[in-house]
Automatic annotation (TrEMBL):
Gene3D superfamilies: P-loop containing nucleotide triphosphate hydrolases (3.40.50.300)
Superkingdom to which the source organism belongs: Bacteria
Source taxonomy: Bacteria, Pseudomonadati, Pseudomonadota, Alphaproteobacteria, Sphingomonadales
Protein name: Sulfotransferase domain-containing protein
Originating species: Parasphingopyxis marina
UniProt cross-references to InterPro entries, sorted A to Z: P-loop_NTPase
Length: 264
């Protein structure tokens, strides 16, 4: 039987870079989250069917299946479904909950569907992050069947990290190479404030959902073009009392959530 790895989390822990690297490796067969389509699945049977539907009957190459949201949203059902694959490795890339939360928040406020004040986001997401705030909790969710790799190693020593992935797939060192462009530029709090404020304003002014989506897409294209220059956003925030107040509120609530997640 060829080696099989299920990458099931965590979100905001380098999943895009990992998927890009594995997909580029000629010696690996890669199945993505879009093919599994498991975030909307509600039962063990549905997850099992999704896995069996996407898994090749007789894979010739080591197989890497990746869906970074599964451990967060469907962990107990997932591990029951994976009982059909007793030889598979279940992989979680570990990143501390505070770092994941801040990254997830900054991403969320740039999207029209989550353009709410931060406390709404916290209310919806905190429980999920608390469930995965330690390795012990994740191991419990997955009933002990999990291998951890560190996001910090992916970021700081990518060659070593990807050699570990190669070893899981019984491939030689160097078989999976780090992607050339591994990470986007980190979004500052000020950039998140500007994006959040723009989304709130757009929702107030535009009642037509289609126009809102089109306008949001144009806004984000402009936003990402200047995102590398985070100083631009700082100047915008510091010249506007309303944005300064929003920044203070976000920082206060981030401090509160850091404390909550640190206590676990």
């Amino acid at each position: 039987m060829v080696p099989l790895v299920f990458h099931v989390g965590l979100m905001k822990s380098g999943s895009t870079s990992l998927q890009k690297a594995v997909k580029s490796a000629s010696q690996v067969q890669f199945i993505s989250a879009k093919e599994v389509k498991a975030t909307s699945l509600r039962s063990v049977t549905a997850i099992s069917k999704a896995l069996s539907r996407t898994m090749p009957a007789a894979p010739l190459l080591p197989l890497f299946v990746s869906h970074e949201a599964l451990v967060t949203v469907r962990a107990p059902k997932l591990i029951t479904a994976l009982a059909e694959y007793p030889e598979a490795t279940v992989l979680v890339v570990w990143r501390p909950a505070v770092e994941r939360f801040e990254s997830h928040y900054k991403m969320a406020v740039t999207r029209a569907g989550l353009a709410q004040y931060p406390n709404d986001f916290y209310t919806a997401r905190t429980r999920s992050f608390l469930r995965t705030s330690s390795r012990e909790k994740i191991s419990s969710l997955l009933r002990g069947r999990v291998e951890f790799l560190d996001f910090s190693e992916m970021r700081d020593s990518p060659t070593t990290f990807y050699d570990r992935i190669s070893a899981m797939l019984s491939l030689p060192a160097g078989a999976i190479q780090p992607p050339e462009k591994a990470y986007n530029v980190a979004m500052s709090i000020d950039a998140a404030v500007v994006a959040l404020n723009a989304n709130i304003a757009a929702r107030r002014l535009i009642g037509n959902k289609k126009k809102l989506v089109e306008g949001h897409r144009a806004l984000m294209q402009s936003f990402y073009r200047i995102r590398r220059k985070n100083g631009v956003f700082t100047q915008l925030v510091e010249s506007d009392p309303q944005l300064l107040a929003m920044r203070d509120r976000i920082n206060a609530e981030l401090a509160e959530i850091r404390d909550t997640l640190s206590r676990g």
